[in-house]
Write the structure tokens for this entry.
Amino acid sequence: MLDSGARGGYVGLCGTEGTEVMTATRGRGLSALAAIGVVLALAGSGGGEQPAAGPEAKPAAPPEQLRLIEGLLRLRGKDYAAARDAIVGTVAEQQLVEVREAAKDPLVALVCDGLLWRQRNPKTAALLDKHGQNPCLAGTFSPPGATGQELWGDHGPVVTRISCFGPEAFPALAEHLLYESRPLFYRLDLIETLVELRDARVVGVLLALAARADEEPRVRAAAVWRLEKCLSGVPALSMPYAVGKNPLGVGPSVIAELAGLAKPVQLAGLEVRDPQRAGALKALAGTLAADKDERVRALAARALRGGDATSVPALAAAVAGDESPWVRTWCADTLKRLGTPEAAKALEAARAAEKHAEVLAVLEGREAAALPEQGLPGKSILRNRQ
């Protein structure tokens, strides 16, 4: 990793800096120069004119660096990792800061944050890439509730990542989830980790996952499931002891290479507020109306428990017309919880028209809505977590 002070900005694909970056990233799927070439090709060859600055306009980002970041977001797996490492080694920190400040796309800003974190913390970043997937010693176990927080009894890897890498690593962990084609079990665990970091940017990450038509179905479902948790609010976290250093000997045990990074953690609670909240509710309503996966639609209906009067039209349309009884059941449950006059009218109309016995039982209050095992994230999606 080159010292940030020695970088002279984006290097023209040659010279000593380019050589060092190529050496550092060899064997990662692409050479650094090829990786940058792919990014530039994906981003397009023309920089175009920068928009005129208005009184409230953000400053124009360096066009070549902005195209690099926009192209990077289109890569996946080893190609993404190689191109990212090339950018980390060849784009000056100040230029990344300028792109970050000018970014209109939250995902561009998030990736810039990740690149900056990697430039400033190269050793920690290397350890995250190496051990983020499996940060705990095999076979460690914490009795449920032994620490006073039941979360940690089942979430050893989650709490270990939080203790060792902290909230500052949120963008890099999001990279692992969004772009690096990591194993399914790790990506599901990362969804949980990002929510538990209580960073408001998690809402955008989860929405991006849910919106990907080609995404693994269980990842999409888990993203929508955890959006409900975010909208409900995540309470503050107080972790008085670093992982592996609890005097009672409880909690997960961290692998040796990460032990020196572990520290106590205090995190403020997450409360999603407008306009972010309104945007998330609108996206969930769109998912309920148009998604092809009935499991995702049902979870979107459930997540709209955290909605308001603006959520009722989408729920009313779905409770009356969705082809899936499962989805209609959860729309009915959510409309009851919202309790607005418009919600009551939608429920009355649905009761009059519903023919499915189980849905009708929920509409009439004789039964509670329930997700079948194959769709319950607490069992098959998030492996015994609710």
